[in-house]
Each structure stands twice: as structure tokens, then as C-alpha cells.
Amino acid sequence: MEIPFNKPFIVGKELFNIARAVVEFGHLAGDGVHTRQCQQYLETTLKTNKALLTHSCTAALEMAAILCDISEGDEIIMPSFTFVSTANAFVLRGGVPVFVDIRQDTLNIDENQIEAAITDRTKAIVPVHYAGVPCEMDRIREIAAKHDLYVIEDAAQALLSKYKGKCLGAIGDIGVLSFHETKNIISGEGGAILLNSDRFIERAEIVWEKGTDRKKFFRGEIDKYSWVDIGSSYLPSELVAAFLMAQLEQTEKIISSRRKIFDNYYSGFESLQSEGRVQLPWIDKKQGYNGHIFYLITKDLKERTGLQAYLRSKDIYAVFHYTPLHSSPAGTKYCRQSEELVITANMSDRVLRLPLFYDMTDEEIRYVIENVYAFYNTC
Questions:
Q1: pTM (predicted TM-score)
Q2: Which residue intervals of the chain are DSSP H helices?
Q3: Do 288 and 275 share a structural domain?
Q4: Are residues 255 and 237 in the same domain?
Q5: Distance between CA atoms of 191 and 234, rounded to whole angstroms?
Q6: Is 224 in the same domain as 339?
Q7: Alpha-carbon span 52 to 126, nearest angstrom
Q8: What is the DSSP code string of 217-232?
Q9: pLDDT for the residue numbered 22
Q10: Neighbours of 104 (CB within 10 A)
Q11: What are the phi and psi torsion angles at 336 (to 5°)?
Q12: Structural domain boundaries, residue 271
């Protein structure tokens, strides 16, 4: 059988909602009925002060950089083991990402190395909740408060994952989410910015609406709107929001399915871990994980390459993750590292992500597990 790494899916009223946006509401541009429904869902479910849909998580990060007044030379602490958007959003404002090493267990930023990276130019800390696993937010917020820094949570992979009972993305000053087709809840492209402090809301609405006070106009607070600040067209199409709303209505069902797949993988590979052949993902079920990614950490790059090739020969599409940003051409030009990123370099060579998608069958899961064991039986 052929097993893709990811597969988009429809779970409920996605197409019905799209037709309704066209036929009933007659509104395809941004900020329509479905957009507002999605935002209300996120605000209520995640317990954030304000949510605004964006056309991507990248856009949400760019908004966060504007709202935190990132300017030339400001430094932003983050991991190098992340997607390019995490850094690029701040570079676009003239900021300098400063990379800190990750933890070997969670692959998240090492909270114990953040403070040493702070200088008088540091403006923000950007923890990335890799695979939906929470960073140590209490310690990060404590450091941020001590040094008067913003905390911007990159929760692109972390919808409905929790840290001490609080939803990720709703803990720092600002959070961002992704609804890209590779995420748990999808709309093709799409994202959201979560504003966890009221001080950001008024300006965020302006930045979101191309730098205009259009939202105030539609609420009847002013008699005309005009250009009042920098901004861009960060709104998604109402068609995107219509699709997304149908997915959000089924969030628990979707995440429950992914957790089941994750758990089946985990139990299937426990003996490989106990034998010291692989390292499995770190998980704390008490925190409330969302089953976003299942990966294996191999012995070294050579073994990962061999395993990936073997699985591909069996029509199983497994992928490695990020090439660390500090070793990329743009990373060396626009960013700096606070230290030698030993764990980042080591772990990024060893991570292999296995197929995981909403309607993956038990038979497909068994096929993947059997072929991973078949590879290791030849080693």
C-alpha cells in the first residue's frame, strides 16, 4: 500500500459552508460571518482576549512583530530548530533573531539558556511548542518579566495542547496558530493571532485591516475610515474561514483521532526504545497533548537516511524536519547564535517524522510499524 506523509481531509460541513458563504451570505472577502464565528470559537475555547484570523501563521507572526514594535537591531530570542517564518517575520522589521539551543527531550527551546542570551537590545522571547509539546512557560514568563520582554508563543503546531491546564498560544503576550494543510485543523493555508492582553487589540485590528481603522467604522464608532498606521492585508478569504469553521466544530473528534494514531505508534515502538534503537517523542499525557507529530530519533544521520530510504521503497513517505536556521544562508546573514547549538545540530540530523493524518487506518499504522521493524532487523 502507498501511505502519504499527510492527507487533507473533509470531516463535516466544509463544502456546505463554502456554498453558504457564496449563496446565502454573498460575501467572499475577509471578515464575514464565518471569520467571526472562527474567532469567537478560538476566543472561547482557548480563553484568549481576542483572536483574529490571518491568511497564514506567517502573517500572524508578522503582525506580532509589528505589535511589539520590533525595529532595526532589536534582538528576539528563539530556537534555531523551527520553520523559517518564526525568524523571517522579525527580520522583515529589522530585528535580529538570536538562536538558543533546544532540549534533548522535548526538542523545545532550553529555558535554562535563555537568560544568558539576553542583551540590552533584546525585545522578545519566542518559544516554539514543537510537535504540540509545551515549552516551560512559567520559567520563560518569569525571565521575560524580570527583563521586561514580550513573550510571543509560536503555537503553530499546538492547537488545544496545554501547559498546566492553559491552552498553548494563550499564555504569553501574543500567540500564533497555523491551519496549514499539514496541521491538525486545516483550511489549506490559514492562521490566527491570539492577543492575550487588551493593550494589543485596537492596534491589531488596524494592522489587520491594512493599517486602517475600518473595524471602528463598521462598528459605527467613526463616520469614515482612513489610513492610520502601518499594516497589510492579513485577512483570509471568507471561503477559507468557511472551510475552517467546519473543522473547528469537529476539533475534539479530529484531535482524538490523531491521539489514537499517536498512541498506537508509541505502543508499537516502545520495544525499539527499550532496546536503545530509537528515541520516541517526549509526552506528558497529563498536560493534554494534541497528537500533531509522531517522530523517531535515530542513532545518527546515516541511519535516518537509511530508514527513510527503506520506508520509501515500501511506499511509505516519511520526512525529516527542519534544517536548523542558524546553518542556512539567510540565517548566517540576518541572525546570530548565542552559543554553540550542539543539541540542535545533533537532533535535527536524527529526527524522522512518520505519516500521521486524520483518517489513517489501523492497517496503515501496522504497515508502517512493521516496516520500521523490518529495517532495524537488518541492521
A1: 0.96
A2: 14-23, 33-46, 57-67, 84-91, 137-147, 201-208, 214-218, 238-248, 251-274, 301-313, 329-334, 342-348, 362-377
A3: yes
A4: no
A5: 10
A6: no
A7: 19
A8: HHTTSSSS--B-S---
A9: 96
A10: 15
A11: -145, 160
A12: 251-377
d(CA 82, CA 348): 10
Q: All 3 cell numbers of residue 378?
A: 537488518
Low-confidence ranges of the chain (pLDDT < 70): none
Torsion on CA atoms 208, 209, 215, 221, rounded to nearest 10:
110
Please give the pLDDT value at position 289: 87
**Selection from 74, 66, 88 nearest residue 119 by Cα:** 74
**Measured between alpha carbons, how far is residue 56 from residues 20, 50, 85, 188, 189 in Å?**
23, 17, 10, 9, 6
**DSSP symbols for 162-210:** EETTEETTSSSSEEEEE--TTSSS--SS-EEEEE-SGGGHHHHHHHHBT
183 lies in the same domain as 169: yes
Please report the pLDDT score of residue 379 as a whole number. 81
Three cell numbers, residue 149: 520582554
Place of cell 459552508: 17
Give the residues across from 92 on adjacent strands. none
Number of structural domains (the chain) is: 2
Note whether residue 29 is domain-resident.
Answer: yes
The CATH number linked to 267 is: 3.90.1150.10
| Unique residue bearing C-alpha cell 527580520 | 91
Q: Are 257 and 268 in contact (CB under 8 A)?
A: no
Cell 508578522 found at:
62
Burial zone of 369 (CB within 10 Å; 0-12 exposed, 13-18 middle, 19+ buried): middle
CA distance 356 to 249: 21
- What's the pLDDT score for residue 90? 98
Q: Residues 6 or more apart from 256 whose CB is under 8 A from it?
A: none
**Quick one: pLDDT at residue 321?**
84
